Amino acid sequence: MSSVEAAGLYVHIPFCRSKCPYCDFYSTTSLELLPLWLEAVVKEIDGYRGRFALFDSLYLGGGTPSLVDAARLGALIDHLRRAFSFSDDTEITLEANPDDITPGRLREVLDLGVNRISLGVQSLDEGELRLLKRRHTALQAEEALAIIRSAGFENVGIDLIYGLPGQTVPGWLKTLDRALGFGPEHLSCYQMTYEEGTLFGKKLKKGTMRPLGEDVERAFFLRTSRFLEKRGYLHYEISNFARAPEFVSRHNRKYWRRVPCLGLGPSAHSFDNDSRWWNVRSVSDYARRLMSGQSPVAGREILTPEQVQLERLSLGLRTSDGVPLETFASCADYSGVLTRLSDSGLIEIRGGSVVPTRKGFLVADGLALLF
């Protein structure tokens, strides 16, 4: 990580019209809490004035930020600009659902300075969309992508999920091919996970829903990577692909590089050097604390040097940037471990860095633990 790289700013907008059965991000369908949330976020923003010198990314995530009206989004962004310093080329991302996309809505968003859309498509197969309880159809998703393009957005990301029960690799590749027809600058392809506390997680525990199995999931991952790289996309992080280096998600890359990031809103996480902290996971509790002059922070931790080192390795080995060789110098027998990993086809030494191969991406979470 560069010591002079600007920080990232994340705002959690935790409102959804309905809860997806696979999602474990904090959200609420109580849209009547929106005014209270905005009032509280403004107070939290004011509490961080002067803490961060410069931001060059603003990520409005959720939840479903696209359901918030332009007046409230505008009030939020205006207050952020008054409170903080942003670079002239700040990447401003809005997460959106296809059913919120209209030409008029996008004109409003563009006027607010948003220059990147991340569209939660998840699938272009009708059966899979029904399984995921998505509110849109495949046709609506494709229409939304066309509207986004016609509105003038030049940086568009599509989120997709693969490895669903009953899904086949050919069916998945068909969805990918249809998505590529819109020329997205970025693709996030997430393997289906069954998080505890979600509806899908409960079904897994009861045995009424089953994952595809490790071998099939491996095949999905490898075919996805080959398919997209063959079509010119950079596989720059386990789940993420960019059409060119300039379309790598500037904000998300900060997390993998351990660049300071400030998170605002209920359940948002922040990081600065060796310190991490996170907010309470409730709009009501978050607002109550801020309105009474209290901090919304639910917990914090100071990382030990050993934890910092493990983070550097585990996060870096998730990316095509890899980890600089000198980072391993303090690890016992690092040369022998690197040789064994290289001989196994899991890493390459490239440009003075240890870089995971496609095969290495499959076991990236375990690589750092070997040092």
From TrEMBL:
InterPro entries: Coproporphyrinogen-III_oxidase, Elp3/MiaA/NifB-like_rSAM, HemN_C, HemW-like, rSAM, rSAM_horseshoe, rSAM_sf. The keyword 4Fe-4S applies. GO terms for biological process: porphyrin-containing compound biosynthetic process. Keywords: 4Fe-4S, Chaperone, Cytoplasm, Heme, Iron, Iron-sulfur, Metal-binding, Oxidoreductase, S-adenosyl-L-methionine. Residues 1-234 form the Radical SAM core domain. It is found in: Cytoplasm. GO terms for molecular function: 4 iron, 4 sulfur cluster binding; coproporphyrinogen oxidase activity; metal ion binding. It holds the Pfam family HemN_C. This is Heme chaperone HemW. It comes from Syntrophobacter fumaroxidans (strain DSM 10017 / MPOB).
